[in-house]
Prior knowledge:
This protein is an all-alpha fold. It has a domain at 79-92 and 109-213. The chain contains eight helices and two strands; from the N terminus they run αβαααβαααα. The chain has helices at 5-19, 33-56, 61-64, 74-95, 113-144, 149-162, 168-189, 192-212, and strands at residues 28-29, 106-107. A two-stranded parallel ribbon has the order 1-2. The mean pLDDT is 89.
Amino acid sequence: MSALIEPLILYFVLFLSASVYPAPPPDLIPFSLSAELTRTFFYNIPSLALIWYILLRTKSFRAWGAGISGLRDLPSLALTFPGMILIGVTISAVSSFFPGIPEGPRVESPENIPGWLVLALSCLSTGYLEESFFRFYLHRKLEDHGISQGKTVLVSALLFSICHIYEGPWGCLNAVLAGFLLSFIFMRFRSLHGIAFAHGLYNIFVYAAGTIG
């Protein structure tokens, strides 16, 4: 249990407190350039800096295996991105057969190039933030305390799903399945950049798919 004290404190401060709304969010959230910029520079980047400050107190980027992205990150990127799309598309298709189960809020897509550029920055920084914590930091923290890989994957996926509770039941299911996929790929390749970049690209894809639809 002691292995979870620091991770749970970080999880509550960085993710859970920001995800549990006192009231249900609206079904459609308008896209706001200022809101995305604020979230990116006053939440995503500071939270990411805090996680890596904690990690870098003991080892360097190179020692953690999180140096400059290179060819070794391509296999995890190539597997993660289509895998997350497959999960998302499958859940979307299945949810259409269960209209009684509520869906989470939908955020409008940008209407111009500056909006898409800001959104891309927001999505990519979110991908790096969540993968730095849920896979890179949490996996290594639990493994260093002798927690088995199976339990580590389960804890990581469940915590990842809970902080998406505002997206409704289908969003939680999508998050837990994606969490398992991301954990397995991270354990296989130990690549932060591959899964983080794929995660960010998937978030962008969700907005683009909504525009096309």
